[in-house]
Every structure is written in structure tokens, then in C-alpha cells.
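User: Can you recover a sequence for this backbone? Please restate the input before giving your answer.

Assistant: Of course. Working from this structure:
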């Protein structure tokens, strides 16, 4: 699962990593949560890439407003091509979600769950695999753009915390993941393997991250 993450890289670094132009109005976010607008990178028919902000919590075009708002924050790599809520987006509307870290929580014998921060070992950016959808707001007639983060089985570093983790797309496969002409799962299956545990740095952080209203650099400072 991935239910919380942060992105605090410089906008120039993000633009260079994903072959983008200028990113207007970008600011660091240390505690992005479901229902927030999160950054995403898409690709047009001619191969040009664009930056957007999508609501985290996928809603298919046939979605009816109600109690399931923002529940579909993750899509399982092993089943999303078959599930009605995800299959169209998985084949035709894929994106990359830049991230500096993601968070997971470990059950404790006593007391509250302990939050952990998971970062790239070398401090570079993650590129989570994402899928996106759109639908028309029945009241305003405006288009709503939503997304989900694709997950796979956890590697040995994340397994003690949770049995799922985000699919992390390697730099050399960005174009493959974004290519709208690639719609068969067999061509993408290799991307769904978890990254090696040795490529991740996992450490405890303070409980302030539990509240999505908290959003500052102190959330990603290691604690003993």
C-alpha cells in the first residue's frame, strides 16, 4: 500500500528528471495524503511530457458521487488490467508520480503505530507508476482528473512494515510506462517487480506525520 508520500525536490530537478519544461507554482510537500492534488507526469501522442496535479483517489468515468470518494488510492499491478474500475486507465492513461519518499506504519506491541520514512538510498527521486481517470462533475460540468498509485509486493526492506509498496519505475522505462500505444500487460509486467531492498533507506520518523495537516521538513527527520 501507499497512503502517504512527500515531494520536496527542487522544481528544476523534477523538470530535468522527467524531461519537462518549467513547472509553475511548485512548492515542496512533505505529507501528501488521499484527496490531495498530487503531482503527475503524462505523455502526449507525440512523446511530449507534461506536468499536472491530479486528485489522489481514482474515480472512473462512471463513478457516482458518494461514500466511495477517494477510496481507490492504490491499484494492484497484478489485477488492475482486469478490474472494471482500473482496466481502462491501466491500458490507456498511465502517468509517473514524482516522490522524494513514502511513509509506512508498523504495528507496535503497545501504543500507536510507528511511522517510517522510505527514501532512495542515494537521495534521488522516485517515479511511482500511476494511472489516471477523468469524469465530468454533474453539478459544475467541469472535468475532474483523479489518479491512483500502482502497487506491487513489498521487497525485503519494506516487508516488515507492510506487504505492499509502490511500483517504482526505473528512469530507462519512463517512456515505456507512459506510451499510450502499449496496452497489453505482458509488455509492462517486468516493471512490476519490486526494486531491490538495498536501494532504499528506511528509518523511523515522529508521529506528527500521522496528521495530514502537518506539512514541514521536520516530518522526515529520523528519530531514535
Amino acid at each position: 500500500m501507499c497512503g502517504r508520500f512527500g515531494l520536496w525536490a527542487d522544481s528544476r530537478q523534477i523538470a530535468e528528471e522527467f524531461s519537462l519544461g518549467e513547472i509553475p507554482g511548485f512548492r515542496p510537500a512533505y505529507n501528501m495524503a488521499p484527496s490531495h492534488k498530487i503531482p503527475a507526469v503524462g505523455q502526449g501522442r507525440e512523446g511530449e511530457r507534461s506536468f499536472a496535479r491530479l486528485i489522489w483517489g481514482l474515480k472512473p468515468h462512471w463513478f457516482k458521487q458518494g461514500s466511495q470518494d477517494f477510496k481507490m488510492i492504490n491499484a494492484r499491478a497484478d489485477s488492475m488490467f482486469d478490474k472494471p474500475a482500473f482496466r481502462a486507465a491501466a491500458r490507456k492513461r498511465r502517468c509517473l508520480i514524482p516522490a522524494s519518499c513514502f511513509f509506512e506504519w508498523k504495528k507496535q506491541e503497545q501504543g500507536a503505530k510507528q511511522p517510517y520514512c522510505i527514501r532512495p538510498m542515494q537521495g534521488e527521486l522516485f517515479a511511482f507508476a500511476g494511472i489516471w481517470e477523468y469524469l465530468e462533475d454533474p453539478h459544475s460540468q467541469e472535468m475532474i482528473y483523479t489518479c491512483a498509485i500502482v502497487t506491487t509486493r513489498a521487497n525485503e526492506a519494506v516487508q516488515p512494515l507492510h506487504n505492499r509498496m509502490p511500483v517504482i519505475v526505473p528512469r530507462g522505462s519512463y517512456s515505456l510506462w507512459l506510451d499510450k500505444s502499449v496496452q497489453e500487460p505482458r509488455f509492462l509486467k517486468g516493471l512490476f517487480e519490486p526494486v531491490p531492498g538495498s536501494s532504499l533507506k528506511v528509518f523511523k520518523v515522529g508521529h506528527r506525520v500521522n496528521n495530514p495537516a502537518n506539512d514541514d521538513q521536520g516530518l522526515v527527520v529520523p528519530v531514535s
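That completes the design. The radius of gyration is 17 Å.
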